[in-house]
Amino acid sequence: MFRILHISDLHASESDKWKTDSVLREARKKLVEQCSENPVDVVAFTGDIANRGSRKEYDIAEQWIERTCLNKDGLNLEADRLLFVPGNHDVDRAKRSVVAKALEATLCEVKNQDDVATVFNDKASRDALFDRHWQYKKFIKKVTGKSLSTEGAWTRCFSFESSSIAFHGLNSSWLCRDDSDQRRLLVGDAQLSCLGEDIDKGDVSIALAHHPHPDLMEFDEDTFENFLRNHADMFLRGHLHKPDVVNKETSSGGYLEIAAGSLYHGAKAPNRFNIIDISRSLTEVTISTFVWQNDRWILDRNAFADSNDGLGRYTLPDRKSAGASKENQREELTAGIIRTDPFLNAEIGDGEDAKAATDSPRTNLLNRFPRFSVKATKQHAAIRHDAMSRSEWAIENERVLRLFADWGSDPDAFLASLTQRLKNDGFTTFLHARCGNVVSGKDLQTRLSKYAGTSAVELGAALRSEDKTILILDELSFDEEFNNENSSLFATIRAFLDYCSNLSVICVAHGRVPRNHLPSGVVPLTVLDDADTREYLENHETRPVRLDDVFDYSRIRRATGGVIRRIDDFVDAIRYTDFDGAIASIAEHTNSADHDLPTEVIDAIAMMASSEEDDHKRAYSLLSVLCILDHGETLKTIKRIRQQSPLWARHATTLEDAGILDVSPSVASNIEEDSLARSAGGEKILHVPRLIRDHVLSIMPRDYRIELLKKTCSVFFGSDWRVGGIRPKPRSSEAGMTSYIATSNELCVIRSVLLEAASGEELVPCTGEEAARLALRFTSYLNSKGLYGEAYESAKEALSIIGDSHAYDSMANVRDELKLLAAKCARMVGEHTASIRLLKETLEVSKNAGLKQRTKAILIAMALAYESLGMEHEAEETAEEVVRMSGNNTADYLQAKAIIAKYNCNSEGEAIKALKRLMQRARGHGHHTVGDNIAIEIASRSSAVNEILKQLASVRTRHDREYNFVRATIRRIETLLNSNRLSDISTLDREDLKVCYSLTFSQRMRGMFNWCNRVIWELANQSDDEDLFFRLYWHSSFFWRLHQDVASEEKFSRKLVERFPLPISGPTLSPAQLTILRYCSARLKTLSFGPTLVPLN
């Protein structure tokens, strides 16, 4: 969910400070307590921060906001998560100039928006009126670091899941004069026009202003009301000091108006604030109102008269996009499911067909030229199919391939596999020229002449009469000459290609592959991802490594950084130790990377580490923080870790210029440029290559590293992480593949803390117990958010360290809790066998310790896992044991009875009746998750479409948008498709399906992902959505490769080819779609399912 803290009307006053201190101090404690499990995403302050608009009042407000919202001991937010609009008390009435008073009098008499615009759009008039907000402006600048406009409306967008939420800030106080302003205020159409195209940004749109619209002049109230109905889903306000919620829905549009009470109206007054939760589906809103009563903050259970638990629950009015055409719906589904790959957007030219080879004798000139002689290996042939297919296409069609090889990517091994495949295409000669310091066409001619022992012209003549030949130009510089196809370097290469019809050229540059973009046509060769790491290990010629748990391959990739030489080290290590020992041995030998780094990089790091120059010191400080983290991080976050040494963009530039740092765009944390590719215009991600990171850590003093680790924990988890508190800071998702874990840096930090705590060193970041409980709390937090894949990986990481270190021998209780969590999450992601193994390991210990509640939890999880594996006898037997241990009508009892009912009934009808009775009991006793489980089981057994939809609807209307929401959503759409009811699939259904695909993919729920993929494929088929077929296959293939799901990969590869049979005549497919077909063909060929189905020419 997306959580908003809505506060208003603080009325900070110097004279009342002694009264407000206790109220605000307790408010801070209550907020930290309420948001420990579900952190706040945005704070919306809807005016009256001060009492009289004076500087000292804003100083009081700033102190509270700093401690409460920005501090590590508070909500741990970034400053850009604070949103403000001014109220009438934010006007410094002592600043009312003669001009301002005259303008006020004029505006009191206006009758239409044109007259308002005449004043508002005149800069001198506007300045005279808005100068009264001058202390408010200074306060905003000081707190947020940004000059947030008070003179016109503004828009801020925040990413949430695969959607965005837009906030529109409006100034309703720019005409405030005194305490009798009702019906005398203006927002003004001129101010609303400041929103421009941003007015319709966001999947959910929330307007912020201080005053209720009846305080506006009547003609302006109509304008403002129309704006809210047409462009806002919610309107958050203050002013009246009374919390209220009004659902304003009419045939012309609607919105939800939410008013906050006064944060401080008096020491004994019923002060209030709201916490607003927006569901994952962006359709439901839950409001919690807290009130100051008897000198403490409590949930106001009287705020919502019809609520049993004191919470207000509302459904947002119909979305503004509800009338979108079916064509647009298809485009939205396509865009939401798969983010655009930069390569898919690149135009792919037709190229020039390779000319027929001519038979001619070899000349003695070429005998002197070095040959490429690296031997291809099985493990290298099994990886990088995308780069391989693109390379083959470039050679076959354009006869020139530009490769950019990352450090540690082993380009020679890739070239060996490529040349092996090219031999099958008729190439017989592979020449290899090392071209270091070659920067122009003239340099290249000179270098080739030296290798051949003759002139470039005679070399060309020899090549012209040769059979099909590859010329590899290695170690080129990645500069303008390499990137520009019109450079003198490529002019020389083109001259050879035009002259020698049987020649093709491979250009290889080495360095750091830019993380943002490469010139069109350049094929990047990077370190291995999770999928390629697995295939490399399983096909290794020295010692194939096959692991039962797919998550372990991800751990290997993280430990080695995807560097092939490191992966080979792991293969060597596992011959002599177990898995965790091999992982540990890789982590212990970080300084072995030095010889992989260029000398100039090592020298630059040494210079910064020893320099007394301030900028060099700070650049090295920035580098040190980044090396504590496995993954990239924003400068904004790093500044919070190193607060005593301010870091700026120029320090990142210093590292980037030295070749030490990669800078790449990220999803904008507050501005969303495009729903499809959100990488433009956002906060930059700073990333240190793995080899550099290992080198820096190997030379970093231990006390410095421990101090950085402790500060990083405080920023990521809150300042009380050592005593069991945890408040993970909101993180915007990164652009790119959604399979990558969003919490990578958190997992990296926890792993480091666990290892250091168990190191036996005198200086450690915390005790072993504190480290273990941090791991447990974070894993529990991920599980509570429905991030089962991440929670499973977190638990496995922690268990691999806690289980192998004697420092944790006394913490069996924490270890068993982690195992139980890991087992539950393993079942969610489809690892049922692993789930049962973990549960069995903890069951006897729990029984012997007399832990009845934990024993029941283990048994019910085990019964569900047995059921998923089709082991009916074991499932029933385990469920019966739970029933014997549980009281009637408890959640465990009812879930166990539902499992037994499936197998004990004589017919489907009898089983459904029994399940319905149990479902009603579960709902009646508040066990909604159990009720949802049973409802989905009833739907799976029913044959009547309407009955199925009815049961699924009861699940989909619950507020839990996680595991059961995914199952119900996929089942609903599958049912409608199977019933030929495509027209009944609504926009909301499609949006829900987007969420399901992203969640099952990112959390690696293997079985449900394949199910979701099948349903989307059928949806594309019935909708005749050609583009969705291609994008779905392109994205899903990564998941199948990662999990070695050969059957699914083969099935959908063939379905794609059958859907678009060859040969393809005419321009029916785009270059991107043809690229996907080539990739599909390469995969089929590699997996030996059959001959190549798509010609590469």
Total E-strand runs:
21
The class by helix and strand makeup works out as alpha/beta
Major pleated sheet: 7 strands, mixed
The CATH class of the domain at 2-315 is identified as Alpha Beta
Helical region count? 45
The Cα radius of gyration reads 32 Å
Question: Could you tell me the mean pLDDT?
Answer: 82
Distance between the termini: 49 Å
CATH architecture level-2 label of the domain at 2-315: 4-Layer Sandwich
**Beta fraction of the residues?**
5-15%
Task: Detail the poorly predicted runs.
Answer: 320-363, 667-682, 732-742, 1089-1097
CATH fold-level label of the domain at 2-315? Purple Acid Phosphatase, chain A, domain 2
Structure description:
Strands 1, 2, 3, 10, 11, 12 and 13 form a seven-stranded mixed sheet that branches. Helix 2 (55-70) runs parallel beside helix 6, helix 30 runs parallel beside helix 32 and helix 40 packs parallel to helix 42. The longest helix is centred in the N-terminal third of the chain and has 18 residues, at 17-34. The protein is globular and about 100 Å long. It has 1097 residues and is α/β, with parallel strands linked by helices. Among the domains are: 2-315, Purple Acid Phosphatase, chain A, domain 2 (4-Layer Sandwich); 347-520, 3-Layer(aba) Sandwich (Rossmann fold); 532-588, no CATH class; 964-1086, no CATH class. The protein is 50% helix and 11% strand. 48% of the residues are buried.
